[in-house]
Amino acid sequence: MLRFMPVGDSMTIGSAGEHTWRYRMWQHLCATHGAPFTLVGPRETLYDKAADAPTSYEYADPEFPRGHLAGWGEGWTHMVPLISGAVRETRADVLLVSLGLIDLGFYTNAEQTAANVRAFVAEARSADPRIAMVVLPVIPNVRCADDSSFATQIGVFNELLAKTLADLDEPRSPLLLASPPPSFDIHLDTYDGTHPNRSGEHRIAAAFANALWQAWEIGEEYDRA
User: Fold this and answer.
1) Which of 94, 100, 180, 202 could anchor a disulfide with 138, C-beta 3.0 to 4.6 Å?
2) What pLDDT, on the 0 to 100 scale, is given for residue 66?
């Protein structure tokens, strides 16, 4: 069975009442991927905004595999010390990673964030030298309109991310950079300028699904974005 682990921040964990791109991705693979697969991770909850904590289990579909490694306000810097244990515990085969916005917004600059990407890859491979990863570039959010330096840092990091993944890629542990979500519009695809609404969830899921299909022929093309 192929095991996917979603790794990310608030856009990946989602909050109570949301489906999340993880769910959209699972639906797509259920419909298009003939071989057995599941989603895994050491965490299972959604974020509960009322409680200001990741305590919700309000998933719409009881069949959905809830495992993930994502957290509200967490980034590459937070996941580096967690990823090796998570890979060992879950025996994940493929990491689906969407990180970086929170790092650049609050914790590290583009170069420091890229260094954390390298550390993350090393830690994941220490647990499984054959781990594969699909990594999404940072999606600019509403803050970029009023903070040009933040927008610049996102652009610089995304360039460094592409170079880092190309540099660290190897046949036994492939690193794949996904294309940005097709036609993503923060005014139409988010509910607050950052977090995806229904259409945004589909677009992010499509970015991961199309990368898997085009590079490794897993599933099929995602045509619902």
Assistant:
1) 100
2) 96
